[in-house]
Amino acid sequence: MVATASWDHTVRLWDTSDIESPKQIDVLTGHRGLTWSVAFSPDGRTLASNGGAEVRLWDVTDPWHTKLVSTVPGGNYTVAYTPDGGTLVISEGTKFVRLQDLREMPLVGHGDVVASVAVSPDGNLIASGSWDRTVRLWRNTPDRTREPLATLTESTNFVRSVAFSPDSRTLAAGGDDAVVRLWDVTDPSKPSFLTALPPVAGEVMSVAFTPDGRTLVLTGLRTAQLWNVSERSKPQPLAELPGYTEMVWAGVISPDGRTLATSVGEQPARLWDISNPRQPRPLAFPGNGFVPAGGISRDSSVLVTMRGDHGVELLDMRNGYRLLGTVGKSVDPPYSVSFSPDGRRLATSHGDRLVRLWDISDPAVERLVATYSGHGLDVPSVTFTPDGTTLVSASNDRSVRLWETDVARAAERVCRLARPGINELEWKEHFPGIPFTPPC
């Protein structure tokens, strides 16, 4: 296969198995200016094209069904891959060359706000739900390579929430068309639609599975419902929680499967014992805050609440919900939170375009570990991968980003790109009087 770049703003793929009579396979469009150069990745699965002040990455595994994978801003004239395929070399005019680590690139493809993101419990998949009415599936690999797998298009309005079942084989999504849908994602490149729950009275704001995978909880306009999804293709209603007269923004299930926290606007959260999902019981809750998505720790011992500018409060679920500590008093309240698997860190996503990581090993002492910047707009959703090494965030800028949570591993990647390193003479020039201790 041969790829050509043209001043007509297109890239063309050609079948050259018969060199005397090449046949056009596909025409790739979307560049907003002259297309200057193209380059195949070493494994032949991705094509980079440079034109219109951007580099586009195309999945050409099946050249008859080419898919746009990502877009990198900038670039002039030339683009190439390093031999390991992990870095793009992009010319910037006549004097500069930029190295783009492909593992640091966002997942793109959505055409509107990405409202929700979830990682499968086995760590292999990422699902993103968007206001463009689609859910996208991506393969998650240890080296964080980007591989789009499928786009689910059954939704007819904004998608607000996505969730995987505990066995990673079922995906649920709900949104503004008032319907929760289930897909079988055992083969994530060819997901199959299973069923849709009956429409509720208005928007669906959150979906979540209980740890045993047998019950699905949905919340939305004036409702919070529990459904038996043991037989995925034939869900059965179990219970509807009484007393809701406004939008129920979040439904958070404790990992032990016993507690459901629901939140309505500025009102105090309401907690329920759902040990028997057919007969949920209200629980006494002395707190007066909102419980955001992801707001219960992995060991079901800590509950997150928020109220106004009081920061993120950490409450002891095993000892009368006493206050353990507070983080983030000086920043805007987060949209969502996520506990690390070991419970020692808390990630928060915010309207100021940032994701923050807090050390809560001693909840009485606020300690900000890292601030992740890169999103261009609000960040409504964040979650840890199951191994705790990566954060995944979704943004109104239409992208999903992956962030390294291990400082040593992040430094190692920086050093791989920062070659040659600083020498002793350069160190003395820039850091006089400081002992020579190069970071790489």
From TrEMBL:
WD repeats lie at residues 1-24, 28-60, 107-138, 152-185, 241-282, 336-368, 372-413. The keyword Repeat applies. It holds the Pfam family WD40. Keywords: Repeat, WD repeat. The keyword Repeat applies. PANTHER family: WD REPEAT DOMAIN 5B, WD40 REPEAT PROTEIN. This is Uncharacterized protein. It comes from Lentzea tibetensis.
